[in-house]
Automatic annotation (TrEMBL):
InterPro entries: NAD(P)-bd_dom_sf, PRISE-like_Rossmann-fold. Residues 56-295 form the PRISE-like Rossmann-fold domain. It comes from the Bacteria. It comes from Granulicella sibirica. This is Epimerase.
Length: 353
């Protein structure tokens, strides 16, 4: 990086924002981490603000000198109409609060639901695989589309460049994150080991056998920085995945082996985690006490519903990265290592036994 850049990471306590803030700080960026309740992090200056409170938000950002904005947050709502209203308002408020700042670049992280539709109509219509960045938008409501349109309008109005990043399932560390398959599966495997149950795949037979991909949060952070500082990558939308593909029937036994549990494929009918883990909170509290774990509240670790949604799909999900490759981004991450590195970190932090 030729000059000092100052990043505002919006959603700095999440899986994307937390890993990004750490990555940028390690690469000599000045980093501000914005969240409603920011957590201490080496090299990251916390900014406490609510994106739905425009007056307080503007006051919190006013004294900061910011060159780059990385938007990595959302608030889940019961309907897509409410997702559009709430998450759209959050973005509008942010860019309004930054009107007097000399922003150079703003990056938006969305996801593969760009090609699959929102949760309430998930996969009912979908783009053809592999998903490509120039696929037309699906019909119907999708708050990702709203966020993109707000970004484009702010860019034209305020004179900064933009990038859009569409990761598939993100594997990495975050504590209290709403969409975290890696941590969810680690907790699930730990419960299976402690209770003597097999590690049953909770998704569909289709997903068990289909080719798919994921992205490591560390690779996503690298990609976000690369797009910000690479002029050729400005004003471009990108899919972001590890670069390999796999089948769950191949990876699942490897995950099970890491926990010393028996791997089992999908039963018929399928056995979603949200249903099977209804009483897991008490089990986890006992496990946490037994092993002196740092987090006894299972709801601060898992997202059963999100893991069920990803593993229960009845359609293929593979992402093409031609935009990144053609512009020179060649980073690669082996997917099993994404999970294994995460499991090692979770044990080090005493979040799993």
């Amino acid at each position: 990086m030729a000059e000092k850049r100052t990043a505002l990471v919006v959603g700095s306590t999440g899986i994307t924002g937390g890993n990004l803030a750490t990555h940028l700080a390690a690469n000599a960026w000045k980093v501000y981490g914005l969240a409603r309740n920011p957590k201490p992090s080496p090299g990251v200056d916390p900014v406490a603000a609510d994106l739905l409170d425009p007056t307080a938000l503007k006051a919190a950002l006013a004294p900061l000198s910011i060159t780059d904005v990385f938007y990595t947050t959302w608030l889940r709502q019961p309907t897509e109409a409410e997702n559009i209203r709430v998450n759209g308002t959050m973005m509008e408020n942010l860019f309004a609060a930054l009107t007097d700042h000399k922003i150079r670049h703003a990056a938006l992280t969305t996801g593969t639901k760009h090609y699959l539709g929102p949760f309430e109509s998930y996969g009912q219509s979908a783009a053809e695989t592999p998903f490509r960045e120039d696929n037309p938008r699906l019909p119907g409501e999708n708050f990702y589309y709203t966020q993109e349109d707000i970004l484009y309008a702010a860019s034209a109005r305020q004179g900064f460049t933009w990038s859009v990043h569409r990761p598939h399932t993100i594997i990495g560390y975050a504590h209290g994150n709403a969409m975290n398959m890696g941590v969810t599966l680690a907790v699930y495997a730990s419960i299976c080991r402690e209770t003597g149950q097999p590690f049953v795949f909770p998704g569909s037979d289709f997903q068990w056998n289909a080719l798919t991909d994921v992205v490591d949060a560390r690779l996503l952070a690298t990609h976000l920085e690369w797009a910000a500082i690479t002029p050729a990558a400005h004003n471009v939308a990108f899919n972001v995945v590890n670069g390999d593909v796999f089948r769950w029937r191949w990876l699942w036994p490897q995950l099970a082996a890491r926990f010393g549990v028996e791997a089992a494929g999908p039963p018929n009918p399928i056995a979603p985690l949200e249903t099977r883990m209804q009483n897991a909170a008490l089990v986890w509290a006992d496990i946490a006490a037994k092993y002196d774990l740092a987090e006894p509240d299972i709801d601060r670790l898992v997202s059963w519903w999100h893991t069920d949604a990803d593993l229960g799909r009845e359609l293929a999900c593979i992402n093409d990265m031609s935009n990144s490759r053609s512009l020179g981004f060649t980073a690669y991450q082996e997917t099993p290592a994404s999970f294994f590195d995460l499991f090692t970190l979770l044990r080090k932090l005493r979040l799993i036994p």
